[in-house]
Amino acid sequence: MVNEPPARPPRRRLRPTRRGRLALFIGIVLVLAVAAAVLVPMLTRGPRVERARSLVIPEGWRASQVYAAVDKALAVEPGTAEKAVGAADLPLPAEAKGNPEGYLFPATYPVTSTTTPRGLLRYMADTALQRFGADHIAEGARRNGVSVYETVTIASVVQAEADTAADMGKVARVVYNRLDRGMPLQMDSTLNYALNRSTLHTTHGDTKIDSPYNSYERKGLPPTPIGNPGEQAMAAAIAPTPGPWLYFVTVAPGDTRFTSSYTEQQRNVEEFNRNHRGASRD
């Protein structure tokens, strides 16, 4: 008879105390936190993406103002953007003869550390080509008996002369009415462009300067746009408001008077002068 081995005592199960469970939980949390601290940078490490800055080109700015803004935005020497025009191979109409005035489209452009004056100017000209090359622009130009480039020139005058967007269509009509009658445009904005200034004060001597932009002495449109027009001015240039007006003057902010009578225009100009003298004394 084989004796049975002695019975083993029952196995005791170890159960952690409450303090032990807490210590174990804290340990697991610490391990996971350390792992996350190591893994997250590894997973997210990569080339840093530069956030683009914005360069705003307002409607009506001249090319000289655009060049200065580009130089400043890109932190390059003054004159760099203007020098880059020749090498930028801008998509301009043949009538422009390489002058981008009118075709540096006013808009908001992204700028980064890799942006160059040449690339930025081409972006502006490409945008203008896209907007001004639309079918309705070409159709409007044909309807008015002018080229698209001449339409841009008219729009630039409208942009500079109109006191409000609501006046743009009437200003455009004055331009076309004067052209149709063989009258000089007599626009102060063209003199300001020739003299590289912006002012409401035009003297008799100003109207006698020898410049192709002197629309007091020379009939027809100026040889180039006098600024970079926006879409509202272009819309006015292709679809001017119907009317007989030949003259206009802004006698006070928001109050532009349009007329076909020279006598009435003289009265309006006198009112403008009185308002201006009163404002100068204040």
Give an account of the 3D structure.
The structure is a single chain. With 282 residues, the chain is mostly helical. The chain has two domains: 53-132, no CATH class; 149-281, no CATH class. Helix content is 48%, strand content 7%. The strands form two sheets. The chain has a two-stranded antiparallel sheet with strand order 1-2. Strands 3-4 form a two-stranded antiparallel ribbon. Strand 3 and strand 4 form a beta hairpin. The N and C termini lie far apart (132 Å). Mean pLDDT is 87; it is low at 1-7, 9-14 and 22-38.
Write the layout of secondary structure elements.
Blueprint (H helix, E strand, L loop, with lengths): L17 H27 L8 E4 L6 H11 L6 H9 L19 E4 L5 H16 L2 H10 L3 H14 L6 H13 L7 H7 L36 H8 L8 E6 L2 E5 L2 H20 L1
Antiparallel strand pairs: 1-2, 3-4
List keywords for this structure.
282 residues; 2 domains; two-stranded antiparallel ribbon; 48% helix
What is this entry, summarized?
The chain has 282 residues and is mostly helical. It is 48% helix and 7% strand.
Round the Cα radius of gyration to an integer and report it: 35 Å
Largest sheet: 2 strands, antiparallel
Mean pLDDT across every amino acid position: 87
Main structural class: mainly alpha
Report the order of strands and helices: HEHHEHHHHHHEEH
Span of the ends, CA to CA: 132 Å
Share of β-strand residues: 5-15%
Residue runs with pLDDT of under 50 for 5 or more positions: 1-7, 9-14, 22-38
**Number of helical elements:** 10
Task: State the strand order across the main sheet.
Answer: 1-2
Number of strands: 4
> How would you sum up the global shape?
globular
Helical content stands at 40-55%
Number of domains: 2
